[in-house]
Structure prediction request, 314 residues.
Amino acid sequence: MSELSRLAEDVSSYEAFSQRTSDARVLLELAVSEEDAASLREVASETEALEKEIEVLEVAALLGGEFDDAPAILEVHAGEGGTDSQDWADMLVRMYLRWSERHGFKADIVETTPGEEAGTKSATITVAGRHVYGLLSTERGVHRMVRISPFDAAKRRHTSFASVDVTPEVEEDVEVEVNPDDLRIDTYRSSGAGGQHVNVTDSAVRITHLPTGIVVSCQNERSQMQNRAVAMRILKSRLLAKARQEREAELQALRGVKRDIGFGSQIRSYVLHPYQLVKDHRTNLEVGNVQAVLDGAIDRFVEAELRRRTGEEV
Prediction:
C-alpha cells in the first residue's frame, strides 16, 4: 500500500503538470489572438513556475535505486581540526536540519556527542520523506571548511574537516538477520541539554555488533526500551548498507575499475576566507552565496551530483 501510494503520487504530479501546461497553452493562444497584455504576463508567470516544477520532476526521475525512496540515517563526524572541526560538524548538522525543514521532511536527532569546548563530535539524524535517501546519498563524503577561526585569538585562517555518512533506514518488511549473541548492549545516562529526565536514569542505549565492530547509540527517546528499538533499527540499516557496499566492491574488483571511496575523498569545500565560495569537486559546481548553502540551500549540489551519477551509469 505504501508503494502504491508513492506511485499514485508520482502519476498525479505528472497529470497535474500536464494539465497546467495545456491550460497555459490555451491561454497563450487567446492572449495572442486578442492582444491581451495582462494574459501574456500571466502566461509568462505560469511558464516560469512550470519550469521550476519540471526541474523537480526531472530530479525525481533520476531516483530509481532500490532504496532511493527510503528514509535516511545521516551521520556527521568531526575530523581533523580540533574545536574548529567540531564546530564545523555542528554547522553541517544545522544545514541538513534546515534543508529537511525546507522540504517538509521529518528530521530527528537520534544521538549527539558534544565537543569539549564547542560544537559536536558526532551526531546521528533520521530523516523521513519522499526520495530522502536518494537525495541525501549525494552528500556522503568529506566536507571541508576554510575560514578565520572564531576560536583562535590570533584570528588565523583554519581548515576544518567533517565526514558525512548516509544509509537507508531499514523498513519493517526488510529482513536483516542479527544474532543476539553477536551483540553487546550497554546502558548509560543521557548527556547534553534536556529536561529533568536527562541524567536521571540509565535510559540511553549503546549497541555494539561484535563481528563488524559497528557501534550504534541512541539517547533521544524517553525510555530505555524506545532507545533500544531505535538503536536496533539503525544497526540493521548499517549492516544492510555494509553488505551492499561489500557486494559493490566485489563487482568493481571483477570489473577491474578502481574508484575513490567516498569517505576518504573530499567532495566539497566551503570557503569563507579570503573569498566566499562553495565548490563541489565532483561536479565542479560553484555557488558564491555560502550563507544560503549553510542555511540549507543545497539542492543545486544534490541535483548536479545525481545527474553526474546518471551520466556515469549510462
The two ends are 32 Å apart (CA to CA). The CA atoms of residues 17 and 50 lie 7 Å apart. The chain has three domains: 2-61, 72-169+259-313, 180-255.
